[in-house]
Each structure stands twice: as structure tokens, then as C-alpha cells.
Amino acid sequence: MYDAMAYLWMIPVIPIIAGFITFIIGPSLLRSHAHLPCIIAGLISFVLSLFVLNDVVKAVESNDISNPSSVSVSYFEWFRTGDPNLVGENIKTAGSLKAEFSLRLDPLSSAMIVMVTFLGTLIAVFSTGYMRDHHGHIDPGYPRFFASVSLFLGSMLILVLADNVLLLYAGWEGVGLCSYLLIGFWFEKPSACKAARKAFLVTRLGDVALFLGFALLWVSSGYHLDFDGLLTLSNYDSGVGLACFLMFLGACGKSAQFPLHVWLPDAMEGPSPVSALIHAATMVTAGVYLLARFMPLFASVPEVQMVVIGIGAFTSLLAALIALTQTDLKRILAYSTMSQLGYMFMALGSGIDVKSALPILALSAAIFHLLTHAFFKALLFLSAGSVMHSMHDVIDLRRIGGLRKVLPLTHIGFLCGALALAGLPPFAGFWSKDEILSVIHETSKHSNYPWFYILMWATGIFVAFLTAFYTFRAYFLTFWGGLKLPEECHGEVHESPKSMTYPLLLLSVFAIGIGFALSNSTPLSIEKFLGKTPGYLLLEHHDHDWLTVGFATASGFAGLILAFVFYGKGGVTFSEQSSGRSNFAVELSKNKFFFDEIYNKLLIAPLNLVFYCSRIFDQYILDGLVDLIAHIPRMIAQLFRPIQNGLVQFYALAMILAVTVFLIALARSM
Amino acid sequence: MNDQSWMTLTNLSLLFGWLAVYFCLPKRISGSSRLIGYVAGCIALIISAIQIFTTYSFNPELVLFCVFSFFAVVGSCLMIVAQNPAHGAICFALTITSTGGIFLLLAAPFVMAANIIVYAGAIIVTFLFLLMLVNQHNADLADSESREPFLASVTGFILMGSFISILTASFSSQSLSGNRNEIELIINETQQALSITNLSELKAKVINGDNYVVTKLKNALGGSGIWVERIEVDVQKNGTLMINKSDDIVEIKTALTSLVSIGTEYLKYRSLLRPSIAMVGNSGADPSLPLGKIRKDQSGRPAMPADNTTFLGKLLFSDQLIAVELAGLLLLVATIGAIVIVRQLPTKVSS
Amino acid sequence: MLDLKIYLILGAILFCIGLIGFVSRRNMITMFLSAELMLQGVAINFLAFSRFRGNLQGQSFVLFILSVAACEAAIALALIVILYRAKNSLDVSKWQDLREEDLEPNEDQEILLVDSYQVQPMPTLPVAGHRPAQEEDASHV
């Protein structure tokens, strides 16, 4: 465990260095090999992460006091403010702040880094194929893409490994920046620019709340910055509830939860691998990770937890309903990501009693779903990317169809991902989704408001049904029915290159197997692994909640069958159905519940008015004042400017006048 | 004639001189203004003549000075009011020859000759050639209208008045005419006297008949002027405190100390005006000598080297050699420059 | 006996008259002559000091003034020639290009010459080797 700490810092630092190297020498020297630093750095980080994970697993199994499963190490002092003479405990006063570059290794972070580095590397490999056209020519921004991906990986790893909130915040902003850069990667497209700006600004709202939450935590915990100090409940007298709520708002921004969810569907303007890596697997789960990290605090404020689960369930339902009628493949996946993230928040929100095992159950369910979702959603996005690549960037479900034959490998990948997402046994989503639903069911027995949690549970079951339905709707429309190609293809379709299909197949294996592998029934159980995290009650054995399993599986299958009934024949009937059954509900879903429009009317329009007034104020009043001040010397100068009339005699006269004045003064003094 | 009435007459003649110049300067509407100007000019000259003849005793030098300066001033005034530049050039030649007479009065025959050769000979002739070269057939507007005649003449005459009043003021006080060596002697003597403690001995030392220090210092400082006034105020307290009448040794010593300080201050002030570069001596009296030590001629003025041209040549080719060479170089450069300037132009004009 | 003061006053008078001429006259040649007049005033000053100090330093300085004046005359005449060629006039007011950008040039209005005095035409150089025309001669001064 301590051995691992010696090289732990290299895991985030190597991708960052690779990113900067690519930025500097990429466009001039590396060009079409610009992916090499990124992939090599990702691989090194992944291997190191495996070693680290091995150490953590050993520590968890040893149960040895001398080999704790949670260690934090400070590598260097990042910055400090206030009196430099203060040391030790004395520094923890208001006005004195000492932040260190300290990393924390425990089961939670080790699981996260393995997932992040593995998916990052795999998606980078996929991108080497995706970021070229069909003739093998690279995209003009090829080096920029891989530099940004490298930086993203580094920032994400810092976020996950950070041992104090400031470093975590730095990583949080770093991934936000890289997300902005990558959404706006094709900045020639106005829509991409707009989407990037929207994502950046909306998440910024959450970030402000997050920072306020951190500041409140810092103050109310007696000026602690490290997690050991922050997560000790005895440090607090008050303020935990508000701080947790603010942090949850930050998590909402990053993880696209209602009401800050509007940026995620637009973020699909970025390249598909970016959607897979950042907007499905890693960055958007940062909110989930944050809440999991602060689970002991959240568990102590059940009121906030009810908000968390409520928002999670609402987002989950909302996104699933919107996804029902969308026709853009990537959008459907984006809404499903929102929906699944809502699931994770539902899980996190059900950890309510500090004294019980519920927090760790909730945490492990959320992280379990986070991991499985990362794999199968990355798979789905990469498959969608592969479809898009083959279809010359067309992924409108109305224009494509029956691709099962022409894109066989992509079809297998998408199918595995869809099965996993729909939660059908024995695919990955089944295990993690059941965990979540059973935790909610379990919580309803312990809570003071059992009906609320039962309602949440029922919502979860319903969303599982909707998920299966819209996933397979997308699947059937894309791959079944008669072959339908957009005119951009000119009748020719090729399967994507090997650099794209091999990662798909590898991910398919994970999408099938990881759920079972990490479930309770195996020695790799994520629940037992995370349960050894210090600060949580040791896990008591609990059975499968067969009621939940039954309902969830049934609803999954129901959704699948329903989708087959409606769309099994492919997209031929799609247009008839959508036009024939146009009613208010469908319109609502199609237009994403009019959230963009509502925000435009309610928030942006009044703000625009304010901005307009400020502009008028600035232009006419402030600038007018400044201009007035600038005019005063000019007006004074206007009096004297005629002196410069260009006549040399006039100048001589002025000179003589001055000399005369001096002489008269001299004569008077004598 | 005292300073007061001198300045009054000066101001009067300046006023008439200004009227003369102002009315004679070419203006758009001339009318009979020139006549007024001539009359005013005559009045101004008469007043000036009265001033000069009442101030200085009548002798041939005065007559010569008056004649030469009359032609110089009248010629220069006519030059600046002439509407025809050719007439102006002739008037300028008159002025140059008249100042040549003034130069002779100032014992500078070589400079007089050089001046007339260069100005009246070379420059004026060149100008007349130029005037013909530019071939200005008709009178130009520029010649018949002055720029700001009122302002220019007022400014010029105020400047002239301040010059004259400053000169009058500085020559009347005779501020720095004291004898340096004598003053140094008196200061040493007084400082020795300050170390004496016995009252009678001190008095004997300081007041010894005609050896009375205060009177001696006053004489050494020139007998009048601001320095003597300061002694009267500071040391003698306007006559109420006399060293020779006091019996208080402290009082006497205080008075003597302030006497010493006035003398020292005078020497310090004077030394600021003393040139510090030693010359070979071809130029005549050493500039560092006090005026009293300079050899005088019969008329009581400093004697000039008798052979002006010889000594001037020796001076120029010994002390001023580098300056002479540089002046020659300057002339060469100017010659080349003038040729280049005029030669370049035709191409520019034609293009 | 004349003293230093009266010579200095004479120098000051010549200097100031030259100044007035330089400032008020618009003909470049007259302006130049006025400047030379100022130099004469200064030269009288130097010579007076030289006389009343009894040494020749002032006289040597006047010689340098003479040489500088000669250089000045050469350059000034050359400049006057080219300026005249450019504008066909000796009026210094024609050259006021260094004024402030948006100022109107100081235009002098054409005046009606008053009959009270006769405008004297300039003398012109007759062509060498030929007898000048008789009637042209008559119009000259």
C-alpha cells in the first residue's frame, strides 16, 4: 500500500505531461502520430493503476492495522496564505490556508482510476480510427484532439485521487475546461461553439455552488481541507446540510441533473469518442463520485438525501421520457446517460442512516452502476460513433436502417451495450440496476418516510421499463428492417477500421461480463471491496431482493418486447407512427419538455434585458463620463492650438515675449 | 544727470522711437502715417542726443560716437521699414559702415575692416545679386504689409527698455568695482584683531587714526554701492553703533565679525565672475586681474595692445587655434552645402 | 569720457531693432538682414567689453561671429533661392505647413495698393552683351 504511494503521483501527471507535449510539438512534429503520447501515457497510467489496485486489494483483504486500505500522502506544498510561521494545527485558522498536493488512495479512488485509465486508453485507440476520414487523412485538429484528451485524463485522475477539496476542485475545473475544448472541437460549426459555451456556462453555475459548498465545509469543519478532517462528523457543529446541498448542486451541474441538465444533449456536438469518454463514462460521473466521497456527510442529513433521490428520480424519468421520441442516435444515448446518472443519484440518495449499513450499500450500488454504466455506455457511444463514421456523419434514425448486415461488428457491439443498458440478465446493467433498486427498497424500511422511498422505487422500475423500450427502439431502428442508407454514402458502406472495431469487441466482453464479475456472488464483489473503506460500518450479509429483481427483469423484458412489436420491422413504419399519433405527450417528449424554451423565456430573456440596460448604461453614461473627462483637456488645448499656426515669425514673437517677461522680472528685482 | 531723470528721458525717447517704428512699418493702410513716424523718430533722436550730451563731457570721441550711432540707428530703422528689399539692403550697408566707425572707437580696426569687407562687401552684394536673380518685377504683398506690426514693435521696444534699465541699474551701483587684494588684507587684519582680549589694545588695533577698518573696507569696496550700504546697515547700525565709540568688547567683536563676513562674501561673489582659464597673454591684460591693476592709458581707460592686428593674429593662432580651424571647416562645409542645396532643386521643381 | 554703458546700450538698440524687423517683416531677405543686424548689436557688445577689459578676447570672438554669419548667409541665400523657386515668392507666410492640422492657413488678403506711395519695381539684370531696351531702363530706379 505504501509502496503504491511512491508512484501514485505519476498516474495523473504522466497524461498531463503527454498533453502538453502534444500541444507543443504535435502540430509541427508528430502530425499524424499525435495520438502516440496520449495512448502511451494512458497505457502507463493504466498499468500503474492496476498495480495500485492490486496493492489496495491486498490491503483490503489483509485487514491489517499496519496496512490500512486508505492512505493519503502529501507530495509537496501547493500554496499557502496567511502567516507563514504558523505550523501544524495552528495553520487551521481563518485567513491562513495551506493547500498541499496530496493524493488519497482507497478502494473508491483505486476503482475509479482503473476504470478511467482503461476507458481513456481504449477510446484514444478508437479515436485514431475515428478522427480520420475514409481515405486515412487525419482531421486538421488531430493533435489538438489528443492533447485535450490527455489533459482530460490527467485532470480526471487528479479529481479522483485528490485528498483535499481544493485539488479536487482544480481537477473538477480541469475536466470542465477539457470538456469545453472537446465539445467545441469543430469550432467552425456554429452549433458546436454554441454547445461548448452552453456546457461551460451551465456547469459553471454548478461549480459556483460547489465552491461555496467547499468554502462552507472549510469554515464549519474548523478549517480542514483534507478529506480525513472533512469527513469526521465530530468536527462540525452546523452547516453540513447547507454545504451538502450546495455540493449536490455542483454535482447536478457536472452530472447533468435537473435543472442543470440542458447542456448534455447539446454536448453531443463533439466527436463521438469524446461523448463516450467524457459525456458518458467519466466526467459526468464526477458528480456521483463527489457525493460518494462525501457520503458520510450526506448520510447525516436525510433531508438533503431526499432531495438527492428526488432529483435523481425526476431526472431519470424525464430523460427516459424525452429519449422515447428522439430521432438522433447520439441524443438518445445522451438522454439515457442522464437517466442512468439519475439512477446513480437515486442510489446515493438512499444512504440515509449513518449508524446503519445503508450508506455503504448505497455508495457501492452507485459506484457499481457507475462502473458498469461506464463500460456499456462507452460501448454504445463508440458503436454509435462507428455507425456515424460509416454513414458519413448521419445518425438520424429516420434516414438509416437495417445496418445489421453491413456493419456486423458494430451491430454486435451495439447489441451488447443495449442489452446491458436495458438491464436484462445476465448483462452488466442488470446487476447494478438491481443493486440500486434493492437499496432503495431496503431504505424504505428504515426511513421515516417509507412511502416516499416506495414511490422512488416504483419510479425506478418504470424507468427500467422505459430504458429497455427506448434503447431497443434505437437498436431496431438502426439495425433492423430493410437497408436504408443516407445519400451521403453513395450506396457504399464499409465496416469501420480495426482500430475502431477491436475496442468495440473488447468493450462488448466487459459489457457482458463486468456486471456479474463485480456482483455479490463473486470474490471480486465491489460491495465487499468498497465496504472495507474506513469510516463505514462493516457490511452485513444481505440477500438478493427477489421482489425487486423480478419486477425489474420483467419490466426490462416488457420494454424489449414492446419495442420489438413497434419497431421490429425497422424504420419503415416509423414515420407513419410518429405522424399518426401526434398528440400532446409526444410533442412534449419530442421537444424535450420545452426546457430550452422555458429557460430562454424565464432566465435568459430577463437577463438579456438586464444586459441591455447595462450596455446602455455603460455606453451612454459611463463612456459619456469618460469621454467628458477626456474632452476637458481637449477643450483647454483648443484655446491654445491656434498658437501653432505654422508662421515662423509668430513663434519668434512668442519667444521674445517670454524673454521680455523674464528680463522685466530681472529688472524689477535689481 | 541722475539715474532717475536719465531713465525718464530714456522712456520718453523709447516711446517716440516706438511710435516712429510703428508708423513707419509697412501697413495695409499707410496714408500719412509715415510722416508721423518720421517726426516721432526725430523727436526720439533729439531726446537721446540731449541725454548723451548732458551726461558726458564734450570731446571729439563723443561727437564721433554720436555721428556713427546716429547713422547706425537710423540706417537700421530705415532697413526694417523699407518696402523695397533693395533699399533695405542699402540701408543695411549704411548701418554696417556706421558700426565700423563704432568698432574703430572701440579700438578694433581689424574687426572693423573684416566687418565691412564681409557684410558691406560680400553679403550685401550677394543679396543684391539674389534680388535680381529672383527677378521680382512687381512689389510683393509681403513687402507692403507687415505681420503684427503693433505687437512686434511693442515687444521689441519693451525688450529694449528693459535692457537699458538693467544696464543703468547695474552701472550705477558699481557693484563689483572693489579692490580684491586690499579687501583680503583688511580681512586678515580684522581677524587678527578678533583674537585680542584687551579692550584698549583692540581699539588701538582697529581704530588707529586713518587705519579705521570700517572706513578702509568701505573705500576698498569702491566707496558706494550695495556692499557699502550693507556695511552701514549691519556693522554701524545706521550710525547708532560705532565701533570707535563703544566700550563693550563683546559688541565690538560682534561688529567686527559681521564686517569680516561681508568682506568674505564679497570675495566669494566676485570669484564667481573670475575666468579660470590661463591664457598665453597675447590678448592683453590678464582677465583675472582686478580692474584697478590694469595698465591705464592717458585717458584713464585700460590700455589696449598697440598693434591690434599683430596681437589679434597671435591670439587667434595660439589660444584660439582649434576654434579658427573649426571656423574654416565650417565655412567649407557651408560652401559645399549651399552649392548642393541650390543644385538639387531644379530636378525637384521640374518634377 | 564715454563709458561701457553707452556702447552696450547702442548694441541693445541695434539688437532690438533687428528683432522687430525679423518678427514683423515678411520678405525673407529683409528678415535675413534683420538677423544680421542683431548680430551687429552683439558684436558691438563684445567689442565694448573687449575695450573696457583691455584685452582682445572679445575681438577674436567677433571674428568668429563674422565667419558664422558668412556661413549663415551662404546657406540662407541658397535656401531662399529654392524656396523662391518653389512658390515664386519671397513671402515667408507662404510657408506655414507646420501649423496644427485643422487650422485654416493664415491667408493674407490682396490689398488695394494705396496711391500715396509709388510701388518701386525691382532692378533687373540686363542680358550680358546686349544693350538693354531703353524704355525698360526708364522704368527702373
Can you characterise this structure?
The complex is a heterotrimer of chains A (670), B (351) and C (141). By secondary structure, chain A is an all-alpha fold. Chain A has helices at residues 2-8, 10-30, 35-62, 107-130, 142-161, 165-183, 190-220, 227-230, 240-254, 263-266, 272-281, 286-293, 295-299, 302-323, 329-349, 358-390, 408-422, 428-446, 450-479, 498-517, 526-531, 546-567, 574-580, 584-590, 595-640, 648-669; strands spanning 71-81, 97-105. Chain A folds into two domains: 2-590, no CATH class; 595-669, no CATH class. A two-stranded antiparallel sheet of chain A has the order 1-2. In chain A, α2 (10-30) runs antiparallel to α3 (35-62) and α7 (190-220) runs antiparallel to α9. The model of chain A is unreliable at 572-576 (pLDDT under 50). Helices cover 70% and strands 0% of the residues of chain B. The longest helix of chain B has 30 residues, at 321-350. Chain B is mostly helical and 351 residues long. Chain C is built from four helices and no strands. Chain C has helices at residues 4-24, 28-53, 57-87, 134-139. Chain C starts with a helix and ends with a helix. The model of chain C is unreliable at 111-117 and 136-141 (pLDDT under 50). Classes of the chains: A mainly alpha (670), B mainly alpha (351), C mainly alpha (141). The interface between A and B is medium-sized, with 13 and 14 residues.
Estimated radius of gyration of chain A:
30 Å
State mean pLDDT of chain C (0 to 100 scale): 80
Helix content of chain C: 55-70%
Beta-strand content bin of chain C: under 5%
Oligomeric state of this protein: heterotrimer
Count of spatially separate domains of chain A:
2
Known CATH architecture of the domain at 4-91 in chain C: Orthogonal Bundle
Average pLDDT of chain A, to the nearest integer?
84
**Biggest sheet record of chain A:** 2 strands, antiparallel
Distance between the termini of chain C: 44 Å
Which sequence of SSEs, written as H and E, runs from N to C of chain A?
Answer: HHHEEHHHHHHHHHHHHHHHHHHHHHHH
DSSP strand (E) fraction of chain A?
under 5%
Q: Any low-confidence stretches of chain A, pLDDT <50, length ≥5? A: 572-576
N-to-C terminal Cα separation of chain A, in Å?
97 Å
Instruction: Briefly note the structural class of the backbone of chain A.
Output: mainly alpha
DSSP strand count of chain C: 0
Structural class of chain C: mainly alpha
Roughly how much helix do the residues of chain A carry, as a percent range? 55-70%
